[in-house]
Design brief:
This protein is mostly beta strands. The protein has helices at 5-12, 50-55; strands at residues 24-27, 59-62, 76-77, 86-87, 92-95, 103-104, 117-126, 133-139, 147-148, 158-160, 172-181, 185-192, 197-205. The strands form four sheets. It has a five-stranded mixed β-sheet with strand order 6-13-12-8-10. A four-stranded antiparallel β-sheet has the order 5-7-11-9, with no helix packed on it. A two-stranded antiparallel sheet has the order 1-2.
Length: 207
Amino acid sequence: MLCLAAFAVAAASCASNRTSQPSPTTVPAAAVTTMSSVAHTADATDPGGMLAALQARPLKLPQISTPGNCPITTVVSSPSKDLGPLIGDGPARPGGFNPVDGLQLAPASRFSSDSWAGNKVLWALSSARPGPVLVRGHQLDGDHEVRFGNAPTPVSTFVMNPAAATPLDGGWYDFPGNTRLEQAGCYAYQIDSPEETSTVVFKAVGP
């Protein structure tokens, strides 16, 4: 678990990526690999076609205005005593790594993969969002996807469905998972719920 105090200085001086972002660049939904399975979901059914509707949304991610400058999300929160520090201020937030230091990638061989490195990322979802919530992503300074899961060839979506989960303190749900990347760089998660879309920008380092 990370120490919230270690993030306090960075968090106090920065605004949320949900309220101040560079102009987005659109990646059509068709450009995102569609997989028949999803990573870590307690219930992969799709009542009312909500997941299909979320998948149909295009990715609208921040642009990098200056080469080498990654506009990372540095807002950090701790909405539940049962969770460590979380990145961002949306209804679904990743955690488990310091946004300033970046996500440290473990080698692809750790996942019995030829190319997909990665590391654990804990996701938390507010009970204010009944779900489902869909997470996808893409590299901002290159052409690589963000993928999820433990498999040698990971999947392109991560679904949080609170229907079969038990809420933690403060009315939050936790969904452990793995973020998988082919190389270090600047990336963004797009987090889609029926009510809204938010983004979290992060950098990945190593392996």
